[in-house]
Amino acid sequence: MAQTMGSDFKKEGACRGLSNLPRPSRKFVNRNQEIEDIKKHLLPHPENDCSCVLVHGAVGMGKTATAIKAANEIRDNDDNTAVVYINCNVVNSCDDLAVKISQQIYDFPLNEFTAEIKRRLISEKDLLIILLLDKFQSLDPLHRNEEANMNPEITRIDQTEELKVKKFITEIITASTKVKLLVTSSVWACFPETCQQTVRLDPLEESASFELLKNTFNRQLDVEIAYKIAGFCDGIPLALISLARPSTRSCGNDDQRQPRGKIQEIHTNS
């Protein structure tokens, strides 16, 4: 098992040098209760039988950002926890998933990836391993293939591989006492016999929307205008960020950062 070198090992968490887990966004606001719920369900406790947490909500609610922040907080405070981050958009098969998992835990080659990584995870005794499967809905062939029709860079996946992935993951989670599953998905996902808990993300409250706008816009923003934008976006984080993030327009040899259309429109009409 790989370990992070140096005096910061305990603070940094296990296998940080191998993990693909991103750091939390500096723009992140709110979701404190949801993050605490995720940690409560995932952290070991004699009365906690949960081995799977589903972060569920509509597109744009911040499921990925919330799960990433919770996973970082768990890992940063426990040197016996490793987090494996998998973006399911780029998982093409069960074997591919096994390779991606092994690369974030073991710094030595494995032979039969799928069978061996399954055996090693089930027999793990020392580390708590959290498998963060982000955008799990993209493993649905219908969802993935619709995206592939619009973007030729996205690889298609068939139903056989989807079923293999779910079987592979479920068998590991149900057989191991040291592996937990954290899943984000905009569609419902169920993992039987895992005492699955669901953390649902709803739209942000008005005050949180305002704070997110301020963090993203990075410049002085009139309070009245900010609340108009927040109302227009209905508390959906992705919509707020998309409208507040400045765009770059080329003007001769200089690039000028300009507010996007809706913010500019509200400025103009105010």
Descriptive overview:
This protein is an alpha/beta fold and 270 residues long. It has eleven helices and seven strands. The chain has helices at 9-12, 32-42, 63-76, 94-103, 113-123, 141-150, 159-175, 206-217, 223-233, 237-244, 261-269; strands at residues 52-56, 81-87, 128-134, 179-185, 197-200, 247-251, 254-258. A five-stranded parallel β-sheet has the order 2-3-4-1-5, sandwiched between helices. Strand 6 and strand 7 form a beta hairpin. Helix 5 (113-123) packs parallel to helix 7 (159-175). It is globular and about 60 Å long. It starts with 8 loop residues before the first helix and ends with a helix. Pfam families: AAA_16. Residues 1-21, 249-270 are annotated as: Disordered. Residues 252-270 have a biased composition (Basic and acidic residues).
